[in-house]
Amino acid sequence: MVVRSNIMALNANRQLGMNNSQVSKSLEKLSSGYKINRAGDDASGLAISEKMKAQIKGLETASANSQDGISLVQTAEGALTEVHDMLNRMVELAGKAANGTIDSETDRAALQDEMNSLLDEIDRIAQSTDFNGIKLLDGSLAGGSKTAPKVEVISGDAVTDFAGANGVYTTADLDTAATSTKYTVKFTVDGKEQEVTVDFTDDATAATAAGSAKTALDAKLGEYFDIAVSGDGLKFTAKDS
């Protein structure tokens, strides 16, 4: 027999269902540790909490990155401390070698042998010190990341590739006192070859020719080089990025 008209029983059953639902939500909050577990709990609150969670994750990642940076610096510091001690020892050896009381070639040779060993060890430390595969003391971290263009004259002889070893920039001269009346300077930027033609026909002296070349080249290469008149030529100095 099913009771369908007992209002008090129906109300009691409804209240029981609501209480069970509230108990389930309370247990969910207790077990998860979160006040808001779904949009139904608090839609705006959930949006705010998710944004804060994202910010917290970002800060945690930044903190971890900072710790990695500290570890890298500490690794380099430890290696540099060893190098510093060796350099101090080399100063000591140089002082001993300069002592007038040492007159034996054998003694001086022994001092030189130790000096050479210290130099070899410093080189070894410089080449082997790394953090997560990043070489710290071999010079590969020096210089900028921008690769300067290669410049060559019309004869096909390369002036220089200005991005030197390990990103250390160098300089080169373009001679404007040569017999040619025109130079075509070719260079490559981001894989695209460009060129500038410098006409020296109306220049009476090498100095005025250098000025003409500087004006023409500044327009195209000024972003990458400091170009200065140097005697009868131009001095290209690659800009560090």
Word description of this protein:
The structure is a single chain. With 241 residues, this protein is α+β, with helices and mostly antiparallel strands. It has three domains: 7-58, no CATH class; 61-135, f41 fragment of flagellin, N-terminal domain (Up-down Bundle), CATH 1.20.1330; 150-238, no CATH class. Helix content is 50%, strand content 18%. A hairpin with a 2-residue loop joins strand 1 and strand 2. The longest helix is centred in the N-terminal third of the chain and has 55 residues, at 43-97. The model is unreliable at 144-178 (pLDDT under 50).
The count of strands amounts to 9
Q: What order do the helices and strands follow? A: HHHEEEEEEEHEE
Strand order across the largest sheet: 4-3-6-7
- Please summarize the sheet with the most strands: 4 strands, antiparallel
How far is the first residue's CA from the last residue's CA?
Answer: 89 Å
> Based on CA inertia axes, which overall geometry fits?
flat
Structural class: alpha+beta
Domains (count): 3
| Low-pLDDT stretches | 144-178
- Measured on Cα atoms, how large is the radius of gyration? 37 Å
**What proportion of the residues is helical, as a percent range?**
40-55%
